[in-house]
Amino acid sequence: MTELLRLSGLAVHFPIRRGIGDSILRRPSRVVRAVDGVDLAIERGEVLALVGESGSGKTTIGRVIVKLTRQTRGTIEFEGHDVSRLWGVRRLRDYRRRVQVIFQDPYETLDPKHTIEDFVAEPLVVNGIGGSAAKRRELVLQAIDAAGLRPAEDFARRYPHELSGGQRQRVVIAGALVLGPELVVADEPVSMLDVSIRTELLHLMLNLRQERNLTYLFITHDLSLAWVIADRVAVMYLGKIMEIGPANTVISRPRHPYTQALVSVAPSPEPPAPGVRAKRTILVGETPDASSIPSGCRFRTRCPVAFDRCAAEEPPLIQLDGGQSAACWLVEKG
Known about the structure:
By secondary structure, the chain is an alpha/beta fold. It is built from 13 helices and twelve strands.
């Protein structure tokens, strides 16, 4: 496979509003480091799952890729071209045709005053694609049909309140497909749906991947879901990638203590032997703020096996066998 997108040294910092007391006492400005130095490559045609707790920075990475959030530093390369400084409606037009997003909440994504045809057709109108109204309608109906809403003519006339949650999310998928993208950033696309509907939509997304040669960045907090759908899994914590590698390898042989803790509490179809309790590593407390950790390993506050070196030096991603990498000093010598 060839490389489609690469992030190098990506960081996104959000400033904290200063109060009157901060100004009087001349306290330095502070920031929340949502993403703090991420290197990540996405291969053409693969499904890369970005996994982590709420607040780990995974959604921020997705928003940076689709150009909804500006990075503080770092570069973004798409097909070998630097698009880091690509901003403005006209300059982003071609890029956004090729990189689309599926948001988590279909109820917030859809405008209740617009029909399904209006919603799916809007990207075509904005980008001046299709030429005539008849051609645009044809493209819209093809996208609605590809998303599994049949007959497409019937669904095109409906409004969002006439659809179920699963059907609404299919409409959002149709809106992403209509431009013929190459990369789709799917941000928790099935987290608000029933389990049975989730399975249908996941099958749909994987089928579309084959039919249209799509590449997915699949953002989720569900490790078991990432195991099922992804070719590779990247585990995030406090704005950094803790571990990355083939999905089966990361789940069956996690090397970072944080990944091991996540895997230990994930539901398993194989119960432990009679009389044996499953071992669980419970991470206590809320995810700390990266800005409150001045140096050393940011996972030290919750790491079950942290040691002295973690306090002084933060480990890089250390390359292991089989395409797996982990940011932990424990794996340095195997």
